Amino acid sequence: MAGSVAVVTDSTAYLPAPTAAALGVTVVPLQVVVGGVARPEDIGSGTEITFGAGEVVSALRADRQVSTSRPAPQVFVDTYRRLRARGFSAVVSVHLSGDISGTVEAARLAAAEVAPDGLAVEVVDSRSLGMGLGFGVQAAAAAAAAGAGVDDVARAASRRSLNSSIYIYVDTLEFLRRGGRIGAATAWLGSALTIKPVLALADGRLEPLERVRTSQRALTRLFELAVDEAAQAAGQTVDDDGAGTSIAVHHLSAPERADELAGRLLERLPAVGEITVTEVGPVIGAHVGPGAVGVVVARSLGT
After folding, report:
1. CB atoms within 10 A of CB 133
2. What InterPro entries does its record include (predicted)?
3. Tens digit of each residue's pLDDT (9 = 90 or more) over 254-283
4. Band of the pLDDT at 24, cuts 50, 70, 90?
5. 3-state secondary structure of 182
6. Please, which contacts does 178-183 make with residues 24 or more away whose CB atoms are closer than 8 Å?
7. What is the pLDDT of residue 211?
């Protein structure tokens, strides 16, 4: 293991726990506060008391206060030092967009603190979230397993995440408004009861894309947007059946919507082979609210 590169990410990648374990990726949870009680976001470790998606959905529907926060820098310091003790000489730490969370900054503070220990830590702002981040983490883990150096592992993560697109449908803008992450979509608030917003992640920020009248139309737009993304990759056209494209579908308390969308995408893009369908955890869930559905498209990187 000496000389190898470890990969760290945070809980908002929403990698299934078995996937993270198989990749050897260390996951650091963000914090969730419900009714004044703070706990880590559930990452499936079973080793501590956490908040899961269901508890946050219940709190949101009951109009209880829910907030989120980054991990403390010391959590990253402890994580990096444990990896050093296991024999790793470098770490690539890949995190959700710095325009959405201070997690990247916490990781950078920790990287500076462990530098005197002789541990090189490269922190990557993925400019993404969910599996937009997760696909970058997978690319980093694959590069590390192949023996790549720290710079190449970090580059693999950044390139994959930046080549991903995210579109999100929310039932209401209210939860994004409460969390201060609504951006330019504030102009839509006056008609929030009569529209179904579709948002896109643009340069690391959630921005308004379209307004539609029904949730079914919103799902159709997510489908159309994902298919369009699968047909383009950095100026190159990929196969019409989705070859070279990875897709994930996220939801919060909307499994039927997510399964419907994933099924339609697989039917249209059979070469994708498999679509990861996961419920987002409480950190992202607290901002998008129950009923939200998102699609992540990681386009082919070409040759």
Report:
1. 30
2. DegV, DegV_C, DegV_domain_contain
3. 999 999 999 999 999 998 888 999 999 999
4. very high
5. coil
6. 178/287, 179/67, 179/68, 179/286, 179/287, 181/100, 181/206, 181/287, 182/206, 183/207, 183/208
7. 85
Query: Is 3.40.50.10170 the CATH classification of the domain at 5-30+70-162?
Result: yes
Tokens (6 digits) for 76: 């990253």
Closest CA to 15 of 86, 94, 111: 94
Half-sphere CA count of 205, side-chain side, radius 13 A = 10
Q: Which CATH number fits domain 164-298: 3.30.70.1170, 3.40.190.10, 3.30.1180.10, 3.30.565.10?
A: 3.30.1180.10
On the question of pLDDT at 236 being above 50, the answer is: no
pLDDT at 185 over 60: no
DSSP string, 241-286: T-TT-EEEEEESS-HHHHHHHHHHHHHH-GGG--EEEEE--HHHHH
DSSP state at residue 149:
-
Predicted local distance difference test score (pLDDT) of residue 172: 82
Q: Which residues contact 269 (CB under 8 A, 6 or more apart)?
A: 227, 230, 241, 242, 245, 247
The domains of the chain are located at: 5-30+70-162, 164-298
pTM for this predicted structure: 0.90
CA-CA distance, 117 to 234, in Å (whole number)? 40
